[in-house]
Amino acid sequence: MAKAMFGVIQDDLVALEKELLQAVISPIPLITEIGTHLVQSGGKRLRPALYFLAARSGPQFDRAYAMPLAIAIEVIHMASLVHDDVIDEAGTRRGTATANSKWGNQLAILSGDYLFAHAFSLVASNHYEEGIALRLSELVCGLSSGEIIQDASAYQAARSMPDYYRRIEQKTADFLALCCEMGALVSKADDRISKALYTYGHSIGMAFQITDDLLDVMAEAAKIGKPAGNDIRQGIVTLPVIRALDTSPDRAELMDIVTNPEMTDAMVARALAIVRASDGIVFAQAQADEFLQLAKRVLPAGLPTEAEQAFLAAADFIGRREF
Amino acid sequence: MAKAMFGVIQDDLVALEKELLQAVISPIPLITEIGTHLVQSGGKRLRPALYFLAARSGPQFDRAYAMPLAIAIEVIHMASLVHDDVIDEAGTRRGTATANSKWGNQLAILSGDYLFAHAFSLVASNHYEEGIALRLSELVCGLSSGEIIQDASAYQAARSMPDYYRRIEQKTADFLALCCEMGALVSKADDRISKALYTYGHSIGMAFQITDDLLDVMAEAAKIGKPAGNDIRQGIVTLPVIRALDTSPDRAELMDIVTNPEMTDAMVARALAIVRASDGIVFAQAQADEFLQLAKRVLPAGLPTEAEQAFLAAADFIGRREF
Predict the structure, then answer these.
(1) What is the value of pTM for the model shown?
(2) Which of B81, B120, B147, B155 to mutate to test the interface with A (most CBs of A within 10 A)?
(3) Residue B219 has what pLDDT?
(4) B92 by DSSP, 3-state: which?
């Protein structure tokens, strides 16, 4: 992640990697093996990074106290990706074999269950502020609900903007918002700061997911570790596609493709071409930018300078990212 | 369940059914629909029943306070069955269509995730005794670990008795033990009582799972709502089979069948015939009886008479059950 963002929390993230590897050790060798593979497959660690940044904004940062919740956050994220990959029948993620492709769906489902429960046990055994366990369990309810809606409405091109925004909120923004808020809570930041950081996290979460969806339309397979047009292929319409369905001269053809569960690779390529030729990409970029500007504006006064700079850098980083 | 066991907690279980239907209501209609189907598909409600029985053994029973944890217990059980059915590709359970057969694997996986998380949110929002959330999350880790071991060792006829006992402990006995202990905790029973009830629950849990495994070898499809020999077909060796692999004159043939992932229906029928002709069934019944006797012996002195009678009846019920 961007150097400017790393600075303040670099040591925290180094410690996190070690602790993550510890956290997946189980008396059952197969669980250790799967967990280690998942940790070593990498990831941006965006959620614990935001959590640590927020934690360093409060008056009482204590890494040893904050760490188990950081682990729980990343383990919940890992568990939900493991189940997503089963559901999407994904063979690779970030260029590495998925758990389902290495160990089969059955073990991947059970490993995801194990990781979710393990995350909750980390929270329960560390005496955090009241409400944290509740917020985290409600978050997982929201993550599953969002996926259920997405799965149930696949190939229906439910193309209202509010539906889209609600979907990416449940998928990403609520999670990033909660990471920022929980960081503030564990370091005893005051209410004004924790609420503002929640809004900050929500805004960059919206921008992050719009950017993610844009990359799926724009990027080369090599850069994002999966084929472009993956969302379209799965019947999921994202912001640039929704916009193109409104404004493109070829919108009827685009609609036929994205609502066809039997679409071929050639049809996916054609859909991508239609979206790229439309104003969908510029429109989605503008929306992401607006969320990033909002994120910067809501940053509360009185943050430690280093933390404030890092929050600003994180927003810039998300605007520029290409992976 | 047996009338004698029902008496004390009949009203609790009637209230439970209503609350379970409430608990699966979500703003997302599809989640409500799947959850309602799962609740209405029934089940013995053995776990909440034991929990309520134990709760009525302490000095401070309060149904309104105890109820959300009872719901969480049954919802965790439901969630684990939903994922088990995906993993086993089961079409029916208790004679009713499974979630995966009605809505597909993807929605079944996500519904299970939602239900697990919802159970934890019920616990987190109701201010239970310290340690309850931790014990429950560790329980779910244990449930998943047990399934992972079972899945990874399928068709290997890992036939040591200790392995089998450890497996059914993680699958069933730990859960029933925890239900009894948590019931004692929420009604402020003293430490001696909660520990004894934990052991009681563990013992009847072992007996319950041995009986369940026996039924798979003995029963007709109609009675248990799934075909006999299901475990053998999935490469899982249970106590009567393990015994037959030691003592049957046809043990070599039995071993060939149970370690063959490609076994035919005729081979399953032959394996069942070998086990039924061996002393495996009598042996397993004797083991189950021993656990039930142990359960009765460890019941603590000083329980309310009605509760004590119900605990004894529950043990007898498990010894006699045919479904």
Answers:
(1) 0.94
(2) B120
(3) 75
(4) strand
